[in-house]
Amino acid sequence: xxxxxxxxxxxxxxxxxxxxxxxxxxxxxxxxxxxxxxxxxxxxxxxxxxxxxxxxxxxxxxxxxxxxxxxxxxxxxxxxxxxxxxxxxxxxxxxxxxxxxxxxxxxxxxxxxxxxxxxxxxxxxxxxxxxxxxxxxxxxxxxxxxxxxxxxxxxxxxxxxxxxxxxxxxxxxxxxxxxxxxxxxxxxxxxxxxxxxxxxxxxxxxxxxxxxxxxxxxxxxxxxxxxxxxxxxxxxxxxxxxxxxxxxxxxxxxxxxxxxxxxxxxxxxxxxxxxxxxxxxxxxxxxxxxxxxxxxxxxxxxxxxxxxxxxxxxxxxxxxxxxxxxxx
Length: 328
Fold this sequence. Notes:
Blueprint lengths: L1 H4 L4 H16 L8 H12 L15 H19 L2 H24 L13 H18 L4 H8 L4 H6 L2 H21 L1 H20 L5 H18 L2 H10 L5 H44 L22 E2 L2 E2 L4 H9 L1
Antiparallel strand pairs: 1-2
Helix pairs in contact: 2-9, 4-5, 4-13, 6-12, 6-13, 9-10, 9-11, 10-11, 10-12, 10-13, 12-13
């Protein structure tokens, strides 16, 4: 599972390629990256193995739509000012109110909130949001080196190579280690590395050596948090037939962090410059939910747990076994 779901290096690699396009074709060309990626993925889908489909009722679309609209309104509250912010705050309360009502009355609620009723579930989702915020800081690295190290647009893109290589090299290793020692330990190492990278970038004045060390640390943080470790923890919260629901819910919180990250980090930069921005990254990594609140030991170490191999890896145990996983 870990080898196929880790995302280390992808974010940094895209930022580096964006620097090349921005230098020679202007910043609008940066968005051309999406076109070849989409075409390659579409071509690869033809050879993708079929996934198992579990017959289940469709979730409540009204609750799902309200949930999405509420999240969008929250982000617009952070972006807006004055009356606009107040309007979207009211809308956010309204949409989340509808979502909460539908959760109670719908035959098949949009979210299965049972796994979120304990510290482990809350920790996974809050941690996903903070990890998303951490990863959003990658888009500001070129501006940092252009301002502090006086790099050109192209050079600022190439400066991300240490993070891209580190993330790519460690992504597979992180996935393997998740299956060997458990996701909690790998995630803890990743968060510590991200915190160290944030401190190195926040510490003025920025030097070339410290920047390289920070990129290596942030590449390790990306490899050991995004993808396999976080996905494995999410899967451990749900039944095996809910693997898609578990991963999608975790992705929602991570995407929320990614979307809110640039807004919050820009606000930190306005107050304290790049020191404030990457200091916030370090704090987010350091104050992620404590390790003791993540779901329990690797499933291999729990006697009697039955595995079911799926396309994305090993599913979570049956309901009767899940309580033991969360309690350990």
